[in-house]
Amino acid sequence: KNREPLAPNDVPPGNLEIFITSSCNQHCEYCYLVKHPQLYPSEFNKHDLIMKNMAILFDWAIENNYHIPTLDIFTGEIWHSNWGLEVLDLIYDYIANKGLWVDGIMIPSNCSFIHDKKQTVEIQNRINKFKKIGIYFRFSISIDGKVIEDQTRPLKDGHVFIKDDKFYDDVFLFAKYNDFGFHPMVSSVSSDKWIENFEWW
Questions:
Q1: Distance from CA of residue 163 to its chain's centroid?
Q2: Residue burial 93-126, b: 16+ Cβ < 10 Å; e: rest
Q3: Where are the alpha helices (DSSP H) in the chain?
Q4: Residue 12 pLDDT > 70, yes or no?
Q5: How far apart, in Å, are the Cα atoms of 26 and each of 30, 33, 120, 177?
Q6: Of 131, 127, 140, which Cα lies nearest the Cα of 11?
Q7: Pairing outcome for strands 136-141 and 101-109
Q8: Helix runs in 103-164, H state only
């Protein structure tokens, strides 16, 4: 099986998208799961059930010799938590030890884990592990820009981190080190600040 890593823009057909959970530490006003929570019913948003179902899916892919050029992993946001690490470890185990045929992994994330140095090290260690076995691993960083971020992507109650200059500097250093990209978004609610926000970028 070809285990050569993909180039960042090489996206052949056959990718697999997994939407793990709608759980998130932000309440983005343009998020379709915020607007339509029925799309991910709460009775299915359970850690053990989700991990079990991921294993069932991966077992099926192995049994059927299914080639996944890129595994696209969507969540609300779990990469600041132990659950996020468990997901990455499960995927790694299936690729490295059980024969899951994946060339690359892509994860959109607000990178709030950057606030936690220990968690950032844990995430980086896993990025390095995937790369050592030839898996191109990338985060697509979902921040909209300092000028509009707090207005369009407020934190949920109980989640506290400060999106200050140090946070953005650390995110950009993390992206630069790993050759990751960004996917900022804008919405009409912040249109009066678009020019200022563009200049910030």
A1: 18
A2: ebbeeeebbbbbbbbebbbbbbbeeebbebbeeb
A3: 32-35, 47-63, 82-97, 117-132, 149-152, 165-178, 194-200
A4: no
A5: 11, 11, 19, 25
A6: 140
A7: parallel
A8: 117-132, 149-152
pLDDT digits (tens, 9 = 90+) for 161-196: 678 899 999 999 999 999 999 998 888 888 999 999
Q: Which residue has the tokens 């024969």?
A: 99
CA-nearest of 135, 127, 9, 128 to 68 is: 135
Over the stretch 56-90, which tens digit does the pLDDT of each residue have? 999 999 999 899 999 999 988 899 999 999 999 99
Q: Using CA atoms, how far apart are residues 17 and 33, in angstroms rounded to an integer? A: 16
pLDDT-derived band of residue 1, with 50, 70 and 90 as boundaries?
very low
Give every strand in the sheet of 181-182, ordered side by side: 16-19, 67-74, 101-109, 136-141, 181-182
